[in-house]
């Protein structure tokens, strides 16, 4: 595929240095109202930005020590992490914290300066619903397969999966399966590419891909590709760069990325770049953000775009990192 | 919708990122006001001040930023510690109270505790972890008001909270935190009110779910929310009974408005097994039901053969014909001859689509898949 990308016109080349600068600039925007309105996403945003930088081959573009200090400053006594200092602990920010520390090879800091690796594991394990096997996001009880995946992701990185009832969680995922091969937020809910990623990735971590109807799911996922080359998240919806990740990584996990037109997807992602100021948007010509930037770049990495580090399709982290942490 | 800034935005046209001096000044003014309010709320949270004044400040802050989940949590804590009545749940004669919380625990214990169940916090029906709070109640519990008065007061709070969130939800219909806060409030209705009263609150909520789906027919938050509300309305806690007929009729109405609404087709497919069981449908009734669904889908496909939603639903019907062990709702006892005849007829109908639409990929995919099914049926 590398050959073909080089034949793409100038504006379809990856604007690596602009993207690096864009991500580096995100924490310098304190005179913008939006910066303050999004503090509840700060730790997630750091994970998105850091992952994008690693995939772009610029792992040192954010200062490592400050990164670790910030992550630890978000931790509560319970072991869970909030989105920023002063924000309540939540599954989503806790998973991001673990992913960030794993990426910068600083999980040991949880024991030396944090509340301890085991305490983080206990925070997550306590959110499992002992009746159904699924997970809540926090003590207030919202449940969603996103949180179940988050638990599997973080606990496997911490080597603490034994703290939860994996079989029960797997049963819950099986109950979320639909006739079209996809998975929803909860049993009975419509198939949605984002939830499919969470369910397929959790089953992959649990070693239970045997429960997936790969033919039917592969077909549903490949039918997400629209005429313009991009992917949507559900039937009859618009394409969006973030589904380049949810759909493509799911196809990768079940070994069927060749069921879509990969070159046209890569071209669609590249058309969504702001080549001048950096960043990637949901569709060509829209405002960029770090969320679409990381999932666009991760998608390109799965498509083997030249010059990008390989991404792990289960964890959305650099493959070199997951290999080191998981001992693969 | 709250500005998600550089984190996640959808469908907003790219414009110059250079602000005029005037825009920059306006941003700075907003920031000053926002951070001032935020500082006040966070300072109160820090000293576990969950008073009515803190509650009022959360209203102002959440209107500016409904994504701020920590503030929704603070608002819950305000309601638990200073607004809702503190009757033990056992005082509600209409409720099962097997998991009554102790009424005199945790007084004076550390406010940092993250797992102390609140005195008088009612058991939560949806989750073992919900309903717990990271704070402790002020030990001011008094039972001097009558049950009726405190019920009326609780109902007023619940209704006021539901009203407060409606404009926020209309503005940010995909904000998870607002939906989950509303559900928490509704669960308070189950724990704190007699079943008939609580039922009224949940029935109103079903109307809201319909209203949200009228605005956006594919909003999967609203569809999921609707399923949850219906499940609660069907439950014994709300003196409920099955609503499967009404919900099935709702999917029919939604599909008539918009054939491409896969959310409605999905919901329909999910309801059918229960619908037929509850009707006590015999084999003949099931066959007639299948015939009607096939006719309806075929007619729709004649108009929109490019529509994936219709084909997915058609696949579901075909799975009922060819995989009765997995999908036993509509044709559980067909003979193999019946199954072959049904499948051949569908294949004929699809082939006739090619006369008008010979360049639609989905038509060929269906022919391909169903022909393979036919081969397997014919060859055991």
UniProtKB/TrEMBL annotation, chain A:
Signal peptide: none annotated. It is an enzyme of class 2 (transferase). It comes from the Eukaryota. The keyword Transferase applies. Residues 14-317 form the Prenyltransferase alpha-alpha toroid domain. It catalyses: geranylgeranyl diphosphate + L-cysteinyl-[protein] = S-geranylgeranyl-L-cysteinyl-[protein] + diphosphate. InterPro entries: PGGT1B-like (IPR045089), Prenyltrans (IPR001330), Ptb1 (IPR026873), Terpenoid_cyclase/PrenylTrfase (IPR008930). Its EC number is 2.5.1.60. Its cofactor is Zn(2+). Binds 1 zinc ion per subunit. Keywords: Metal-binding, Prenyltransferase, Repeat, Transferase, Zinc. The keyword Metal-binding applies. Catalyzes the transfer of a geranylgeranyl moiety from geranylgeranyl diphosphate to both cysteines of proteins with the C-terminal sequence -XXCC, -XCXC and -CCXX. Belongs to the protein prenyltransferase subunit beta family. This is Geranylgeranyl transferase type-2 subunit beta. It comes from Humicola insolens (Soft-rot fungus).
From TrEMBL, chain B:
Its EC number is 2.5.1.60. Keywords: Prenyltransferase, Repeat, Transferase. It holds the Pfam family PPTA. Residues 132-143 have a biased composition (Polar residues). It catalyses: geranylgeranyl diphosphate + L-cysteinyl-[protein] = S-geranylgeranyl-L-cysteinyl-[protein] + diphosphate. It comes from the Eukaryota. InterPro entries: Prenyl_trans_a. Residues 88-130 have a biased composition (Low complexity). It is an enzyme of class 2 (transferase). Residues 1-26, 85-146 are annotated as: Disordered. Catalyzes the transfer of a geranyl-geranyl moiety from geranyl-geranyl pyrophosphate to cysteines occuring in specific C-terminal amino acid sequences. PANTHER family: GERANYLGERANYL TRANSFERASE TYPE-2 SUBUNIT ALPHA, PROTEIN FARNESYLTRANSFERASE ALPHA SUBUNIT/RAB GERANYLGERANYL TRANSFERASE ALPHA SUBUNIT. Belongs to the protein prenyltransferase subunit alpha family. This is Geranylgeranyl transferase type-2 subunit alpha.
């Amino acid at each position: 595929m590398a050959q073909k990308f080089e034949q793409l016109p100038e504006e379809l080349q990856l604007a690596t240095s602009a993207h690096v600068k864009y991500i580096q600039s995100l924490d310098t925007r304190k005179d913008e109202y939006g910066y303050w309105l999004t503090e509840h996403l700060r730790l997630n945003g750091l994970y998105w930005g850091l992952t994008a930088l690693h995939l772009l081959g610029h792992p040192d573009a954010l200062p490592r020590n400050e990164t670790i200090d910030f992550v630890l400053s978000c931790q509560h006594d319970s072991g869970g992490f909030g989105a920023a200092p002063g924000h309540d602990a939540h599954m989503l920010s806790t998973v991001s914290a673990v992913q960030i520390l794993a990426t910068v090879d600083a999980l040991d800091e949880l024991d030396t300066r944090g509340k301890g690796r085991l305490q983080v594991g206990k925070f997550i394990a306590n959110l499992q619903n002992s009746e159904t096997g699924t997970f809540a996001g926090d003590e207030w009880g919202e449940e969603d397969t996103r949180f179940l995946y988050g638990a599997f992701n973080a606990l496997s990185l911490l080597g603490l999966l034994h703290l939860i009832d994996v079989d029960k969680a797997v049963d819950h995922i099986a109950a979320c399966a639909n006739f079209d091969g996809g998975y929803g937020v909860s049993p009975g809910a419509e198939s949605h590419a984002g939830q499919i990623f969470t369910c397929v990735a959790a089953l992959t971590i649990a070693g239970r891909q045997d429960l997936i109807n790969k033919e039917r799911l592969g077909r549903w996922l490949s039918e997400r590709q629209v005429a313009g080359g991009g992917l949507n998240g559900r039937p009859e919806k618009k394409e969006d760069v973030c589904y380049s990740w949810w759909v493509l990584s799911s196809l990768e996990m079940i070994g069927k990325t060749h069921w879509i037109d990969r070159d046209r997807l890569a071209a669609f992602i590249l058309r969504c770049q702001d080549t001048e100021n950096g960043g990637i948007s949901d569709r060509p010509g829209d405002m960029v953000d770090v969320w679409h930037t990381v999932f666009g770049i991760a998608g390109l990495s799965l498509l083997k775009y030249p010059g990008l580090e390989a991404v792990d399709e289960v964890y959305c982290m650099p493959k070199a990192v997951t290999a080191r942490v998981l001992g693969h | 919708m709250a500005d998600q800034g550089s984190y996640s935005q959808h469908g907003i046209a790219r414009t110059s990122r250079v602000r005029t001096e005037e825009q920059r000044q306006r941003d700075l003014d907003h920031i000053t006001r926002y951070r001032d309010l935020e500082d006040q709320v966070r300072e109160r949270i820090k000293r576990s001040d969950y008073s009515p004044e803190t509650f009022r400040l959360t209203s102002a802050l959440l209107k500016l930023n409904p994504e701020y989940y920590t503030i929704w949590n603070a608002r819950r804590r305000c309601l638990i510690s200073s607004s809702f009545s503190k009757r033990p749940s056992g005082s509600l004669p209409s409720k099962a109270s097997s998991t009554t919380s102790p009424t005199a625990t945790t007084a004076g214990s550390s406010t940092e505790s993250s797992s102390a169940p609140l005195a008088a916090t009612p058991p939560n029906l949806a989750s073992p972890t919900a309903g717990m709070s990271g704070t402790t109640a002020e030990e001011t519990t008094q039972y001097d008001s009558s049950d009726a008065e405190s019920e009326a007061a609780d109902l007023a709070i619940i209704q006021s909270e539901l009203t407060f969130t409606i404009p926020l939800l209309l503005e940010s219909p995909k904000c998870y935190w607002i939906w989950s806060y509303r559900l928490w409030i509704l669960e308070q209705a189950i724990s704190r009110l007699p079943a008939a009263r609580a039922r009224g609150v949940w029935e109103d909520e079903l109307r809201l779910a319909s209203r949200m789906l009228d605005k956006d027919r594919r909003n999967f938050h609203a569809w999921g929310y609707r399923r949850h509300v219906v499940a609660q309305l069907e439950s014994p806690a709300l003196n409920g009974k099955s609503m499967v007929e009404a919900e099935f009729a709702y999917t029919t109405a939604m599909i008539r408005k918009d054939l491409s609404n896969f959310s409605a087709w999905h919901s329909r497919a999910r309801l059918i097994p229960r619908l037929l069981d509850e009707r006590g449908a015999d084999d003949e009734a099931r066959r007639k039901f299948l015939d009607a669904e096939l006719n309806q889908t075929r007619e729709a496909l004649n108009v929109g053969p490019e529509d994936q939603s219709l084909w997915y639903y058609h696949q579901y019907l075909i799975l009922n014909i060819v995989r009765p062990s997995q999908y036993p709702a509509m044709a559980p006892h067909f003979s193999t001859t019946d199954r072959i005849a049904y499948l051949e007829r569908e294949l004929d109908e699809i082939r006739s689509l090619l006369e008008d639409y010979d360049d639609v990929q989905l038509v060929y995919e269906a022919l391909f898949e169903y022909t393979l099914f036919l081969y397997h049926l014919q060859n055991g």
